[in-house]
Amino acid sequence: MSDKTSSRFIVSGTSSGSGKTTVALGLMAAFREKGCSVQPFKCGPDFIDPGLHRLVTGQVSRNLDLWMCGENFTRDTLAKNSRNADVTIIEGVMGMFDGGISSSGSLAETLDIPGILVLDVRSMAESAAAIVKGFEMLRPKAAPKGIILNRVASKRHLQLVSDAIEEHCQAEILGHLPRTLAFEIPSRHLGLLTSDEAPLDNAAIQLLARTVAEHVDLDRIEHLFQVAKESQPDILSPSPAKKERCRIGVARDKAFCFYYEDNFDILRNAGCELIFFSPLADPELPVGLDALYLGGGYPELYAEMLSNNHSMISAIRQWIECDRPVYAECGGFMYLTEGITDQQNVFHCMIGAFPVKAHMQKTRASLGYREIQTLSASCFGPAGTVLRGHEFHYSSIDRMPDHIARLYSVNNGTSEGYTYKNVLGGYMHLHFGFTPQTADEFINFINTCRE
Prior knowledge:
Distance between the termini: 54 Å
CATH topology of the largest domain: Rossmann fold
Largest sheet: 10 strands, mixed
Number of strands: 26
Low-confidence stretches: 230-238
CATH superfamily of the largest domain: P-loop containing nucleotide triphosphate hydrolases
Number of helices: 14
Strand content: 25-35%
Oligomer: single chain
Mean pLDDT: 92
Radius of gyration: 23 Å
Helix content: 25-40%
């Protein structure tokens, strides 16, 4: 790869379950094994796939979401984080055109990113060409330039599918994965296992890299998706780092691992020092903190350990009662309730800032993008501040008492964002990219509380 060029593409699927994640991870691993620097990204609001990308590439993976973050922020995130990479690989979301403005197809079209379509050809042969042709015709500006076939049964099967696609379609077949590939990422109710749980060992990653290198034309991919680095979108100059204005303790371990990396960057750029700690393992909070940030994750899986860490629970309770600031999302919000009833119907006591219990369900409780407008002045700025994010959880809470104020007016007709003293908690995962001034407002609020 020339110093003046790089390769950049998005890996999309015909549907969820088509093998998109396997192919994306395989390409990342194979190009890294080839000696290329690989920069991963994830289309959409997912937390788990970016962690797997980091496990395979050694690089932080970021979310690209046009609805949640806006076009300018998304374009800048891609540009400034891929500028030094030999190969930039963006994993899509669901099927290529699923999700409206947040779909892989919309991202490809808006940011002019050519794509590879992953097609699961199990139980089909020549009919595969009709599927590819449809994806080419539906939105020509987002049409895939290359195809990787998944679950190919034999040489004869490969020939039948390839001949049909080559006869009727414009996209080029770049390779395939055999049906015999023994590669699987364990999953649970919110999706795949997280990178913190090490679902992929080195042997599995190397197997995937070798398989992709054997069956996919990596050199052709580099050439087909090559772009001149000078032709990439202008890099917005980063703001000069501000003098440290506050220290935020961020809960980060196996129970709390769902964070948008860009939120950390926005906070740091505004002058925050982020201090990571583990509610699972640490006996007390780090010293010298000004606020707490409790993200989402899987507290229900580690509820007994969290509940048994009495010194940490006591420290956070004391922090809250002393009017210190806390912002909590989804799993972090569950941690602040009276307790969690897990899927085995066992109750585990938690912090108790909010007078409700969280209950795990066997079916999904909520899923979707959310836009909120604040109903009063808050840690995020004046009343009327608009923020965007995403909600996905299998738990529900008891009815929150009326004396607990609601901060958010949500675009689905509900009110959420519960407040107690200087605590704000709720199920929404907010991305600060749509309203980056939120970071300065948050810091101002923290410093007001400190004073």
